Amino acid sequence: MTRGLPKIDVEGLKSFIDEEKIENLIAKKENDKGKIREIIAKSLAKNRLELEEMAALLNAEDPDLVAEIKEGARELKRRIYGNRIVLFAPLYVGNDCINNCSYCGFRASNLELVRRTLSLKELEKEVRTLESRGHKRLILVYGEHPRYDADFIYETTRKVYETKEGKGEIRRVNINAAPFDVEGFKKIKSAGIGTFQVFQETYHQKTYASVHPSGLKSNYLWRLFAFDRAMEAGIDDVGMGALIGLYNHKFEALAMLQHTIHLEEKFGVGPHTISFPRIEPAIGTKFADRPPYQASDEDFMKMIAVIRLAVPYTGMILTAREPVALRNEAISYGVSQIDAGSDIGVGAYAKEDEVESAKKSQFVLSDNRSLDDVIGQLCEHGFLPSFCTGCYRLGRTGEHFMEFAIPGFVKKFCTPNAILTLTEYLLDYASPETKEKGLKRIKEELADIPQTNPIKQQLLEKLSEVENGKRDLFF
Ligand code: SAM
Ligand code: SF4
């Protein structure tokens, strides 16, 4: 059914998360240097890790060992993914919600939140505003409500793709919404979505039950099997996540690996991206001020490095919930996608509404830099900001997997496409300072491609076409 809420059916399903095994694994200590080094080497040789191996990395506490783990993650990123970092913006379509997740500002019982759902006209204005700033990739976010059914997600996605402002356009729409049944997922796929994200929030069943007291979301198994249904419906790119702060972060990281293994075994492919948002304060939401298991910055950064090593083929997302310095460090460990210039209040980009953004927001952001500032600073730090959507447009789903698995893929496709899309941004939207930093960065990247590489000539030709006004060129 695509109209209204899906009918939940979990008959015959059994959780594939082995809580007892995970609890036993995280209770251990690990200080065997040789073993840790072997595990890092296995990952650098492009192998996904097993639960025991990931647990050993998470349990290592000796500062020298932790430094080696972080260096391992950096090395993996350098070798496989290069300097690129993909940029996107979240667009909140509606904050109505029937659920009561303790940590979320959108929960039904929160009377302090101002409820809003964008009309298609308002959505169009939001998209035009984002396009006029240079965005090319969006994630649409929805509460869980009968009005945000599969048909609504379809319509809103189509609207985004159809809306064009000047030279701007959105080339990839990802979705973060409640999980659907197979039919609903099929409808949503037909709108041409990129990734469908569903965060399990916590994989620990008892905790899950206590923070999701009512509404559809209270059904753990329905959510746990969301990607099975999505993949059955033909959606290959799924975005996994755990909300850090509800339960032990090591447990969640290992459970995400177990979820990954489940998908690999059943569908031959793991998640496209992994997210690990930490709980942030939210309006009218005491729970979020003091989450029971908040990970310290130190534990959080180590977890990010360990996830990079454990699932070397997935994209990793870190949002503007986190402050600038921490995001920069996380990028060096392999975070591959960040949002920039984000405002998470419903209707907040076009600023047409009297109500201030915070009263319509799900939580509070820490990184409030504009897209232009983020791009300038990334360039200064030697990264290569990218708006590439080449794989998605050419039907190459699972791009992160290909970057990882196909030798030379990044050099052949990703870096040239990053250079082309960054050039578009610099010509069409950048401030003079960012333009200068960006052009310098592109020069450096071009200098790294040997003259003998046939891609170089093709790239230079495409770049001169972009300079002459052509847009949307990619390999
Ligand atoms: N309503 C859908 C759902 O729950 O699946 C869509 C996603 S919700 C709008 C997006 C995500 O925000 C949630 O999955 C949760 O992980 C995260 N979130 C909720 N409250 C948060 C908070 N206080 N701080 C940080 N992230 C939060
Ligand atoms: Fe609703 Fe999602 Fe927030 Fe839960 S996390 S209250 S389902 S918007």
Protein described:
This protein is α/β, with parallel strands linked by helices and 475 residues long. It folds into 3 domains: 19-77, no CATH class; 81-386, TIM Barrel; 402-467. Helix content is 46%, strand content 11%. It contains 20 helices and 11 strands. The protein has helices at residues 19-26, 33-44, 51-59, 63-81, 120-133, 150-162, 182-189, 205-211, 220-224, 226-232, 249-267, 286-289, 297-310, 324-332, 371-380, 390-393, 399-405, 409-428, 432-448, 454-467; strands at residues 84-94, 137-142, 164-165, 168-169, 172-176, 196-201, 238-242, 273-275, 315-318, 337-339, 384-386. 51% of the residues are buried. The mean pLDDT is 94. The structure holds S-adenosylmethionine (SAM) and iron/sulfur cluster. The site of iron/sulfur cluster has 9 residues, from loops.
